């Protein structure tokens, strides 16, 4: 039996691709008068931290240069959209039941996300994450370490849980997130597949299973 589980958040526990894209489209249209194609989101935005997304935005128009404030603007719009449409802010099926079961089973859990602190605070507010997660076990982009596909955020989460990599299960959805999970040396990597996912990225033999949601996740995927 594996001893701990670490979850990515956006796309894995909370399917918010449409909300993220809506916010980015507003910002890109406002500053660049440009439309981003779905493939651009999939390849250059989803699953990446804001520093990497900023580099991509700056590559779109050599005549303009944006600093990190443009990503802060996007996050403000994103949270506003979420607040205006609370019916769209919900966990993937099975998540709440999985958290409850893991907590009841005494299995340590953590979140390792590319989101920044204001979004993390927002998720605590909307999802009441304090029911399951100590704040020290929610790791986010504080701009002090490289983000996915580097494994740093997962290694830090393992350290805080006091668990060796080989004893951890990691749940991810994006290409860079899966690369980070594999590079961390996690004992088992579970990929969540959704409508935006590319089947090609799930072909790595180091991915133990591909799931659509978390129904029946525990204890099945920890055994």
**Regions with pLDDT < 50 over 5+ consecutive residues?**
none
**Based on the structure given, which CATH architecture of the largest domain is correct?**
3-Layer(aba) Sandwich
Strand content: 5-15%
Rg, rounded, reads 17 Å
Helical residues, percent: 25-40%
Query: How many angstroms separate the termini?
Result: 5 Å
Shape: globular
Query: How many extended strands?
Result: 6
Total individual domains = 2
* CATH-level-4 superfamily name of the largest domain: HAD superfamily/HAD-like
CATH domain class name of the largest domain: Alpha Beta
Please list the strands of the largest sheet in the order they lie side by side.
3-2-1-4-5-6
For this structure, the CATH topology of the largest domain is Rossmann fold
Mean pLDDT: 92
> Which sequence of SSEs, written as H and E, runs from N to C?
EHHHHHEHEHEHEE
The total count of helices amounts to 8
Taking the sheet with the most strands, its summary is: 6 strands, parallel
Structural class: alpha/beta
Can you walk through the features of this model?
By secondary structure, the protein is α/β, with parallel strands linked by helices. Helices cover 40% and strands 11% of the residues. It has 8 helices and 6 strands. Strand 4, helix 8 and strand 5 form a beta-alpha-beta unit. The relative contact order is 0.18. The model has no long low-confidence stretch (mean pLDDT 92).
């Amino acid at each position: 039996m594996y001893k701990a589980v670490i979850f990515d958040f956006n796309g894995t526990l909370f399917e918010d691709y449409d909300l993220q894209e809506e916010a980015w489209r507003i910002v890109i249209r406002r500053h660049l008068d440009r439309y981003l194609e779905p493939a651009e989101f999939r390849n250059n935005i989803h699953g990446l931290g804001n520093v990497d997304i900023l580099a991509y935005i700056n590559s779109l128009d050599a005549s303009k240069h944006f600093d990190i404030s443009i990503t802060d603007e996007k996050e403000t719009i994103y949270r506003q959209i979420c607040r205006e449409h609370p019916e769209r802010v919900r966990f993937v099926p099975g998540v709440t039941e999985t958290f409850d079961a893991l907590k009841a089973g005494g299995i340590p859990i953590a979140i390792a996300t590319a989101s920044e602190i204001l979004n993390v605070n927002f998720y605590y507010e909307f999802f009441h994450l304090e029911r399951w997660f100590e704040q020290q076990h929610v790791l986010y982009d504080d701009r002090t370490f490289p983000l996915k596909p580097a494994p740093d955020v997962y290694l830090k989460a393992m350290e805080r849980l006091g668990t060796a990599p080989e004893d951890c299960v990691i749940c991810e959805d994006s290409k860079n997130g899966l690369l980070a999970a594999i590079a961390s040396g996690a004992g088992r990597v579970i990929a969540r597949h959704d409508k935006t996912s590319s089947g090609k990225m799930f072909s790595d033999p180091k991915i133990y299973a591909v799931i659509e949601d978390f129904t029946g996740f525990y204890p099945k995927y920890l055994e």
